[in-house]
Design a protein that fits this description.
The protein starts with 5 loop residues before the first strand and ends with a helix. The protein is built from eight helices and five strands. Strand 2 and strand 3 form a beta hairpin.
């Protein structure tokens, strides 16, 4: 499916507010069917031909418009790449699933777990482990912003396709090695496991996704490299200690 796809924005002048603000709607067209979704924003002036806001504050409104249109296109492209059958309703459902209120988002749950770990630093969790989770949270948040153009997605909407897209993002865009990628995915898997246990997530998105680590061949330093390391003037005393311990070993 997917023929005759288009996404645009229309201004509902018949629903104009008393202050003259005109509500804006996303219009999704697929196979000669169309559906409209309120964007939750309004424009004081609207260019019908260009389908863009004009006047005061128009640049910010038009920026949001382009982001939301791109978001819909990315959802459709994701369905296409996965070879899934989809409909106008499934595209709309995927879009609305990121904006529903009253349910926790996966990034929100991530932050809760990091706060829990931080409160138990030195007892149950090492500083390095907590920092690792903070770094993986940062990368997952960047991914969500790029793929969906939203601040968070509902826990209930986290599926296998999102996990696979995230893995591709880490490998292809961030250029991380497979071990680093799998470490960040294991952090996310831990969060989803908690959600499964709590019942906020019904289906395991990591089902059939293997997170094995690849053994790396580390070549020993040459005598010249070791000599350079021993003579390097580190300003940080911690680095000096680490260097001395490494050389001694």
């Amino acid at each position: 499916m997917g023929a005759g796809f288009n996404v645009s924005v229309i201004a509902r002048t018949e629903k104009a507010k008393t202050n003259g603000e005109i509500p804006l709607y996303l219009r999704i067209t697929l196979e000669n069917r169309r559906s409209e979704i309120s964007m939750g924003i309004s424009a004081s002036q609207w260019d019908t031909n260009a389908r863009r806001a004009k006047g005061k504050g128009a640049s910010k409104i038009n920026e949001v418009i382009e982001e939301e249109k791109s978001f819909i296109r990315r959802i459709k492209r994701m369905f296409d790449e996965e070879g899934q059958n989809y409909s106008l309703e499934s595209i709309k459902e995927k879009y609305l699933g990121t904006a529903q209120q009253g349910q926790s988002g996966i990034l929100e749950r991530y932050q809760t777990h990091i706060a829990f770990m931080t409160a138990r630093e030195g007892k149950e969790y090492a500083f390095k482990t907590i920092q690792g989770y903070k770094t993986s949270y940062k990368h997952f948040r960047s991914f969500i912003l790029q793929l969906y153009a939203v601040e968070d997605i509902l826990i209930s909407k986290l599926d296998q396709s999102t996990i696979l897209e995230y893995k591709k993002y880490l490998l292809m865009e961030k250029k991380f090695g497979i071990n680093t990628v799998n470490r960040y995915l294991k952090h996310l898997k831990n969060i989803t496991s908690q959600c499964l246990n709590e019942g906020t997530l019904k289906k395991n998105p990591f089902n059939k996704i293997t997170l094995g680590f690849k053994e790396s061949d580390r070549m020993p330093l040459t005598e010249l490299e070791l000599e350079r390391l021993m003579q390097h003037p580190f300003r940080n005393t911690t680095y000096q200690k680490v260097r001395d311990i490494f050389v001694l070993s």
